[in-house]
Specification:
Elements (H helix, E strand, L loop, with lengths): L4 E6 L5 H10 L1 H5 L3 E4 L10 H11 L2 E6 L1 H5 L1 H16 L4 E6 L29 H27 L21 H34 L3 H32 L1
Helix pairs in contact: 7-8
């Protein structure tokens, strides 16, 4: 289990039943040793709960924000856990995934720029079949876990070329010059700006889809959302490639 992706649940206790349902749908990944899931109900007697939450939040690879009006109203969830989660997300130390449990006004929240689950950010409780909603969430989380596994594998695999650096032609040794590094850093910043704009657009489209009642308009929004998700994924891969070059 040492290589399992650590998943942290940030949620309101008023939504505990829905958290349990989500955990149930993630059980296969836990059985496979793909993830280790943690939430505050696992704190044992005599432990300092605030420290336990902070410690697990700081080592999590994926942080799930279980969004509802209860979550937004909770000072601890919003001001403590969500704020720290977004800090780690911005530093690319963890991946934050908003899970929209119930309809709520989360417009303008710091996590609003992030791609949410279920599909099209449609709240779980508004699906005709909630099991289908949770399945969609679980599949989305599995895809993120698989992306992380591939990224970790590629970054940890040693280079097969063992030729001494002194024999490599200038500029092909893999060591960036200052000029090259500056160029890649500028490229990274440019792509990051594009990624943030696309993420914001995706959040707005998701909100529009959630409140739209006209079927034809919803179909058009679905197409826009899918296209925007494709663009976001492309930019995300581009950012990862740039980060690898800067290592």
């Amino acid at each position: 289990m040492s290589n399992a992706v650590k998943v942290f649940f940030s949620y309101s206790h008023k939504d505990e039943a829905l958290r349990d349902e989500l955990a149930t749908h993630l059980s296969m990944m836990k059985r496979q040793g793909v993830i280790e899931a943690w939430h505050d109900r696992e704190i044992s007697a005599g432990r300092e709960w605030a420290n336990e939450i902070d410690d697990n939040l700081d080592i999590a690879d994926i942080i799930l924000l279980l969004v509802s009006a209860n979550f937004l109203a909770s000072d601890y969830c919003y001001d403590k856990e969500m704020t720290r989660a977004m800090e780690r997300h911005e530093m690319r130390e963890a991946r934050v995934i908003p899970i929209i449990l119930k309809p709520a006004d989360w417009n303008g929240a710091p996590f609003g720029k992030l791609q949410a689950l279920p599909k099209n950010a449609k709240p779980v409780t508004t699906w005709q079949d909630q099991d289908e909603a949770f399945l969609n969430v679980a599949q989305g989380i599995r895809r993120v876990v698989e992306e992380m596994a591939k990224s970790n594998t590629s970054s940890s695999t040693p280079a097969k070329n063992t030729t001494p650096a002194t024999s490599s032609p200038s500029g092909t040794s893999g060591v960036l010059t200052e000029r090259q590094r500056r160029r890649w850093e500028q490229e990274r910043d440019s792509v990051q700006e594009q990624y943030d704009l696309v993420s914001k657009k995706l959040g707005l489209l998701g909100k529009a889809y959630a409140i739209e009642t006209d079927v034809s308009t919803k179909l058009k929004l679905e197409v826009q959302i899918q296209d925007t998700q494709t663009e976001q994924n492309r930019l995300d891969r581009q950012l990862e490639e740039i980060e690898q070059k800067l290592l």
